[in-house]
Amino acid sequence: MATLIYLAGPDVFWPNALELGMAKKQLCQQYGFEGLFPLDNDLDIASLPPYQAGLAIYQANIALMNRCDLIIANMTPFRGPSMDVGTAFEMGYITAQNKPLWGYTLDGRLYSDRVEGIETDADGFTIEAFDMADNLMMVGALQQQGGLLTEARENTFDNHLSVFEQLLQQIHKSR
Asked: Cross-referenced InterPro entries, in alphabetical order (predicted)?
């Protein structure tokens, strides 16, 4: 039976989300894995109010994560200087289950450099400056549970697939 990999990240928000998910799943197959993409859920939410639809998606994604053997998280900054908050939750959920956690980002800068390289923000709050690609809790989980691949590349479809495949190669070699 193939190792099941949950494919976390803001990829579901891309205009071509299904195409990106399918391409990642095909790459997983090439390395003997089976990718589980959040949009694989067969949900009929059209008749649900938005709040109920959101809860249905949450429960379906939890079910997918419970089935998986490990997770690969796209940590490329999304809608700000840091990774997608839903992906951060998924990484924490998997870490709590002691399942392997792997991640990648196409932003080669340190988190502190993405937040304008200042020590405090406009409200006086301290900016993390630990020479890490994102929040120390996310990078710490990756360090303990698997690994992080950082590549300074343009945030494009092809670059995501290229770096994702590099990470699959690392995972394949580590097994």
From this structure: 2'-dNMP_N-hydrolase, Nucleoside_deoxyribTrfase
Tokens of 138: 């996310």
Determine the Cα–Cα distance for residues 145 and 34; give it in Å rounded to an integer: 19
Q: What is the Cα 129 distance to its own chain's centre? A: 22
Q: At what angle do helices 85-96 and 136-145 cross, to 10 degrees?
A: 40
Taking the C-alpha atoms of residue 108 and residue 126, their distance in angstroms, rounded to an integer, is 22
Give the pairing of strands 101-105 and 147-150.
Answer: parallel
Give me the domain span that covers residue 161. Answer: 3-174
Residue 39 exposed, middle or buried by CB count within 10 Å (0-12, 13-18, 19+): middle
Q: pLDDT, tens digit, for every residue of 51-95?
A: 999 999 999 999 999 999 999 999 999 999 999 999 999 999 999
Question: What DSSP designation does 72 have?
Answer: E
Contacts 24+ apart (CB under 8 A), 111-120: 111/81, 111/82, 111/135, 114/77, 114/81, 114/82, 115/81
Cβ contact 69:5 at 8 Å = yes
Domain count within the chain: 1
